[in-house]
Structure formats: C-alpha cells, structure tokens
Amino acid sequence: MPSSRPQYRVAIIGTGGIAHAHAEALAELRERAQLVAVADVDRTRATEFADRYAVPNVFDDPEALLASENLDLVHICTPPQTHAPLSSMAMRAGVTALVEKPTALSLRETDELAAVQEETGSRVLTVFQHRYGAAAVRLRALVRSGALGRPLVATCETQWYRPDAYFEVPWRGRWDIEGGGPTMGHGIHQFDLMLSVLGPWSRITALAARQARPTDTEDVSVAAVRFDNGALATVVNSLLSPRETSRLRFDFEYATVELEHLYGYREEHWRFTPAPGHEELAELWTHGDAPDITSGHRVQIEAILDAWDAGREPGVSLRDARRTLEFAAATYASAFRGVPVAAGELTDGDPFTLSMDGGSVPWEQIKETLV
Questions:
Q1: Tens digit of pLDDT for each residue in 315-345?
Q2: Which residues, 6+ apart, have CB-to-CB distance to 144 below 8 Å?
Q3: What is the arithmetic mean of pLDDT over 162-169?
Q4: 51-68 burial string, b = 16+ CB within 10 Å, else e?
C-alpha cells in the first residue's frame, strides 16, 4: 500500500563538505523528501554534486534556484557569513530554511531573521542534530518528569584537534566570516545539547585565548556556568587536544548520565549510573526496541518531516537557536571583558550583540599596542 504521507521538495544551497551529510541523509529519507535542486557559486562543483546524488536541477545562483523551484525546505550549507542573508532570501521566497550552525554571526543578525520570520510567516531552523539522538530525547523526558531529581553539576567538553593547515581555508578562523573559533563553530553542538537538557542559564564567567593556532579567533575557551535551576557547569571548547573527545556529564540527585563520543553518538556512547538506593531508575534508561541510529543529520531531518506530518512546529526554532548563540556571545563577552555576564545582559547596541568579538579581542589589542 503506498504511503499517505506527503513527499516534501527539498534543495541544498552550498555543495561543500557538510552538504554531503545532508544529501546522504535525504537519500535515506527519499520516500519522504525529494532533493530536486542544488546551487553553488562554483557551478562545476555543484554539477559534480548533483551527478553524485542524482539531483535534476543545478544553479550557480541561490536566488535563481528559489525563484525556479517549488520548495518546502532549503538546506543552507554555505560558510557562516552567508547563513543569515540566505535564510532571509529563503523565507522571502516562502520556503523554510534549515541552516547549518551557527544560525547567524551575531545576536543582531538573529534578531533581524526573527523580524523576517514575523513578516513572512516562514521559518528558520538550525542544524543541532545531537538534540535528536534517541538517548538525548529520552534524557530530556526523564528530566522533565522529575525522575532523576534536581540537576546539580554538569561537564561539557569539546576537545578536538585542528592543525595549522586546517586554517588555510580562507574563511576559517576569521571573526567576520566564521563568527568565532571553537566556541562558535565546534563546541556549540555540545553546549547546545547541554542547554536543551538543563534549560535556561543565568550567569557565565569565562576565559578564552589564542594559544597556538594561526587564527584571528580563539582556539580555546573555558566557562563556568550557573543555570536558573541552580545547577553548575563547566564548559571547555578546544581545537588543541590531540586525543579528541566530545563529553557531557550530568549529575542529578538520583543518577549520573554520561556521554562520550566524537562527532556523533549511539546508545553505546552513553552511561547511566543510579545513585545508591535508586537502582530501579536503570530500568527507565533502557531503550528497548528503539532503533539505534547515530545522532547525525538524518535524525533531525526526519524529526522535521514528522513534525510537519503531524501539524507541529519543527525544531530547532530560531528562538531556541538564539539562546545558544547568546551563550556563545556571553562566553566571549565575559572572557574579553574579564567580568561575569548574566543572561539577557547583552542588549541591543552592546558590541557583543553586533559581533562575537565585541571589537575587543585581547590579542588584537596587544598587537596594535606593539605596532
């Protein structure tokens, strides 16, 4: 019997490295989503990409793609500097934009996107696929139910390694194009997942430095965080760590929940430890017959399609993405100003709402003084 679910029409703008993850995910979901067009300023690259994934229509201009195709969703897989302009273009064409992180380069740009959402009724969704792995969904449900007790302590570590050669790509390591270093472009996935579990944060005290890499941005940041619910957390974002890991640990009143992986997790990467006297909680963690799928792009794209089928708003909404970007901006503001930063403190007109560097990068100021 044929499926009664609609098949959604999808396009991809930008056919570089990350676009392949999107195309492969869509290929696995081909019965529900049809990839009908791609665009890239490098038409040769776009054509090779289209040939590889059997995409019928190729453009070298995203505006022409949006004008020519009847789309439900467009995946924006371009360098970060272009995310906000392309998302606005998509919304004005009546298409939902699914944009790679970061959603925008600044809180100001994010608020401008919100204004376009309000004007057009279209939406911007952000790729934070680790929210959608089965274990993360299960953990959030347990937290909401109160079964684990109060959250008390958390650790969030993105300790990756990128050699100097990584920054030979012209847009990497630049505030004006990439928006920041590992805080903005690498660790953001892990602390977004942490925020989705622990909820609103209230205060950040941070440090950041450019220790070794040939970049304008930081290559490491460290933050201490207080949450509205009283939990305390530490967050490390590094590109200097030869033994790479992505690690989250949550200590609740009645259990510890840990995750250690690198770029995507399965059930085997999680560990659940009930507190003495609460051993029965282990049964709540058992995943049963649920499919054990890596927390990659497919799980989030599938969740978007499921939400549309059910008439629900899909995630990750612009409002949720802004909370995560505000966490990054506050990390930079605290590190560069040398003071704690409270949630909501970075209001319109503050330099750190206009750009993540806030115009006050310490190592740039030292360089200017020496000159």
A1: 999 999 999 999 999 999 999 999 999 999 9
A2: none
A3: 96
A4: eebebeebbeebeebbee
CATH number at residue 144: 3.30.360.10
pLDDT at 2: 47
Query: Residue 38 and residue 54: Cα distance in Å, rounded?
Result: 11
For 230-287, the pLDDT digits (tens) are: 999 999 999 999 999 999 999 999 999 999 999 999 999 999 999 999 999 999 998 7
CATH number at residue 62: 3.40.50.720
Task: Say whether both 282 and 140 belong to one domain.
Answer: yes
Instruction: Name every residue whose Cβ is closer than 8 Å to that of residue 344 and which is 6 or more positions away in sequence.
Output: none
Domain final position from 75, 93, 128: 128
Q: Give me the number of domains the chain comprises.
A: 2
Alpha carbons 55 and 48: distance in angstroms, whole number: 10
Distance of alpha carbon 37 from alpha carbon 65, whole angstroms:
7
pLDDT for the residue numbered 1: 38
Q: Considering 113, 128, 143, which residue would you say is the last residue of a domain? A: 128
Sign of the dihedral through C-alpha 86, 87, 93, 97: positive
Within 8 A by CB and 6+ apart from 12, the residues are 19, 22, 23, 35, 37, 38, 39, 49, 55, 74, 75, 77
The rounded mean pLDDT for the chain is 95
164: how many CB neighbours lie within 10 A of its CB? 10
- Give the strands of the sheet with 8-13, arranged side by side: 57-59, 33-39, 8-13, 73-76, 96-99, 124-126
